[in-house]
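Notebook entry, structure prediction.
Reason for the run: the old model in the group folder had no record of what sequence produced it. Starting over properly, with the input documented here first.
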Amino acid sequence: MSELPVLLFDVQIHLKNKDHAGQFIGGIERVCTEELLRLIRSGYYEIYLVSSLGDEKYIPILQKNIPELSFCKTFPLYVSFAWWALLIRKPITLLIKILSQTYVGSYNVLPFFRAFMLKLWGMGLKPSHEFEKIKSRKIIYYTCFNIFPLPIVAQKNIIKVAMIHDISPLRFPDCSPDVFWNFFMLFYSFAVQADYLFFMSEFTRDDFYSCFPVACRENSVTYGAADQKFHRYSEVEVLTVKRKYKIPERVPYVLTVAASSKRKNVDKIIAAVVTFRERNPGNDTVLVIAGRIVEQEKELLALVHKHADFIFSPGFVADADLPILYSGTLMYIFLSSYEGFGLPILEAFQSGVPVIASQLTSLPEIGGDAAEWILPDQQEKLAMLIKDLTMNCPKREKLISAGEKQARLFSWDKHVYIAPNPNHLALILPRTSVIMQAGKGSAQYYRSSTETISRRQIKNEVFHHHGLPQQRKHH
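New structure, fully documented this time:
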């Protein structure tokens, strides 16, 4: 009987909480956890857990908090360099760090040297002896959210696979310059080093290729799904969670789940709820905003405090409580300007809740005909829809039924059947890096392949109220 192929699964995104790895799971971590658990159950691979940033010491903590991961071994990625390479790297790394702290450096200067930097970081790398143990087998390295580690890139027999959820840091750069630069290099490394790319939606695939047309054309779209714990809960369970987060017990509420990000348009949801309350003085419906609002969001915090009598922001909601909070709401509002997949829509559908959502980016692709679609700046329309779904029971029931049906189209079993199914990847071979294919220096590479994403270009490409920008299709 032939040996199973080896899957090196990067769990670095789970290790960012270090001593609390695996305790607080939200957003992309939830998606990555579901992927990993389903792959373990599938029996497709012998799975090793990898830390792309060298944080292997926290993997046992992750395994303790997610016991099913204890069946996986840890694969250490030891990195060492020749002395001459270290001498070269130190001053250049310091220069990069200084430049990345400025907008000019991170948006305009450093991207021009991106291919050179990927070459530089790999110079003088000493091979790791760990790979000797598995070198005779088919090896796939799979990452969801971190740059390919140097020891992986150096091994020519490893198939490098990445799952791309979205490129929001490039489209909505509301982060510091150095964070933008790190994300730019992450996506660029996927573009030029990956042998196969998976995307969470067709929108994300098209968006990625519009920024990085040099990326490998071997790709698939594979949708995620809501966790099975999102379903209808009893009134007693809902009341218990409302008490825990100090939400008024006997009044109906509208829910939105959003971390601090301007693209989530929480301020516009608040404005619509204020309008709804002013026009319906006898209605005591409140708004619940689940997710931390950071101190830097001063205007949003001011709005919440101003309307504290009917807007409640409980902050972080525990993973076990969030599905119950969904289940008890009158409706779910998701007004984001940019999403690569839009998992909260499916979570609301599966919880038996009607949804009002932004019609931009990937959301209509996921929600189909099962939601009420609006543009983020249509606050008057949103206020009317809130009233309609509060008082129109037949319409509510129709949307709930359509949403539950739509949610059943998505499953993690379907997702894992595509990504990364060994049968699907059987014919994929490690490619020669696009960086090396340029052959005659970086100038030829830049002229013939990809554009530098400047800050001005990003601003011009931010999605406006008329809908999506024109983008090329890549299949």
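Summary: Confidence is low (pLDDT under 50) at residues 433-475.
The old model has been moved to the deprecated folder.
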